[in-house]
Amino acid sequence: MIQADTKMPQTLMSERRFFNRELSWLMFNTRVLEEAGNPQNPLLERLRFLSISASNLDEFYMVRVAGLSSQVRSGITTTSQDGYTPERQLEKIRKRAFKLMRSQRKCWQKLRSEMSGEGLKVKAVDKLNDAELLNLTKVYESQIRPLLTPITLDPAHPFPFIPNLGFGLLLSFSTPGQIEERRALIPIPSNVPRFIQIYKSSNGRKATFVALEDALTAFANDFFVGSTLTGQGLFRLTRDSDIEVDEKAEDLVLHFETLLKARRRGRVVRLRVTESMPETLKSYLFESLGAAEHEVYELDGLMGMSGLSQLIVKTRPDLVFERFTARFPERIRDHDGDCFAAIKQKDILVHHPYEEFDVVVQFLRQAAADPNVVAIKQTLYRTSDDSPIVAALIDAAERGKAVTALVELKARFDEATNLKWARDLERAGAHVVYGFIDYKTHAKISLVLRREGRRLQTYAHLGTGNYHAQNAKVYTDLALFTADAAYGRDVGKIFNFITSYSPPQNLEKVAVAPTTLRPKIEDHIRAEIKNAKAGKPAAIWAKLNALVDTGIINLLYEASNAGVQIDLVVRGICCLRPGVKGLSENIRVTSIVGRFLEHARIMCFGNGAKLPSTKALVYFSSADWMPRNLDRRVETLVRVENPTVRRQVMNQIMVANLSDEANSWDLQADGKYIRRDTSDVDEPFSAHRYFMNNPSLSGRGKSLKYKAPSQPIRKGKKRTLKINDNAPAEPIGKDDTRSAG
Predict the structure, then answer these.
(1) pTM of the entire structure?
(2) Of the candidates 387, 245, 350, 639, which has an alpha carbon nearest to the alpha carbon of residue 405?
(3) Catalytic residues
């Protein structure tokens, strides 16, 4: 438990100054689910949000709940920062998660009805007409039944292994001549479609589907000819999927291969069964799977809603978001596609997904093909299965360039993909390293060394997002390209830190975790406290995915009490309690959930002036404010000094995020999130829509003007966006007279 600083106000000494991390995450996933019910989103996009909320919950159980369950089994009673024991946290999680699952079921029922009205029907078998039933029978007999393996359960056929997120149909049946009922199981294969399409119109606009488990239930009796089914029920399970790395492992690759095989057999941490399953079958199932009572959720309705994404048909573009085409940075195009020439002229900041990820790919492809490039160094935390980044690195290695690839094997759920890429890179001749045993390398950095005349010129890429081409289409991230020698030296030292374990010394523009990043952030917060106490303007803006670290939170509380104005945009977990008098009355927290997933981490410190200001200190980072990022990972905090890039980050990106009305939720002191009320706004301001419609500066300086977000439009009024390259309007919340600075 965190020991309170007795010099702080009494309010700070209460455990209630923190929200519980796990419950805060469930609140975030509730906001994701709310988007599935948001009528402003197209119908199939709402279905996608429902699918995402279900997938998120699966992962939450596989990792977070699994960890707490392990602590309870080990007898650990240490409390969390908010004062809850692991057992008490599981009790609260179960209650909140069960409510969330019921909401998901209700949401699916509504969406299913609306989809039916659009000609996209998901029907129960008993609701099919004769022609539809005939089509279902044909598909089932030809494509599904051959893949099924019914198992009569007895001493010769024990209960089989069911993989993580696996389905099964458990049955009981009676056979003439036998006194006792028998049990059987039909595991549902993972390699068949979640929904069976039994009708499609010629133009594809109408289609009819049947859920796989519904078809299986309807045809189950065919496997037991001569017997009578007396009971049945569906179940789906979630297993512990976390991996604990042995620091004494001699070969990390072989160790991970073993761990990945073991993960498939992890303990059951959640078991969902249909309420209608007979009690005798339930008892048998629980005993066979070793599931505890608190791990069981009895709930009728569709299971495995993450599979609903399969119903997002490509033939209905009218039911998804209007297609958006990302822009390619114009200054690189102005240099005939020569990345090095454009970067050498001036730093370039790329804002994904509004600007293409292809610029990163082109940067590395050009480096691979350029005879003057002698070396490339690259971190890989997450990347896609068909990664163009890895392909460019392989090409460079095969051309004889010195390629060093830091492949992070501990990237959860991407371990197998990263192992594959590591082997491919090694075969091509690249030098592959795996970072630290006890730290994850989460930094997103790339370094190209090019011989120009008699010197080596560095070209660095520093980002907030992974080198993942698909994620870059929906994740909002920043990527800085620079030929500044100081950045190049810093990035080089970070790579040497990873490969040699020697902590980097005398970094100039980049702080690195776990050595200098936390102290840098804390020093800046303390500097704002000092400014406030001296009567100077004091302000902090931060955009994060998660805020959990108690040390940082306590400093923010101290800053609030000193008079520092703090505005936080925290997409997911937030353990800080805002708006409490004597504790956090000068702190506001919002969460943006919308079309794109907010992923960039940005920090702005007033430095003796209101924000936005030319005096401000501006950073972007790969790290959230969590203990794991600050203390147990290799992360970067990048100082932005180029005036053009500073304006883009602070005056465009941060101002737009703080001004967002359409996608924002305000965190209340009691832990509830309230969606921004836009009932009196004709055109609610959306940061996502703003960036889709307004080209970023892309390092072009004042040659490109932009429209800066201003105050919300009230009913009957039109929005007037100020054209101002230097000082756009400060964000003003609804009915709020305080400037964000």
Answers:
(1) 0.89
(2) 387
(3) 442
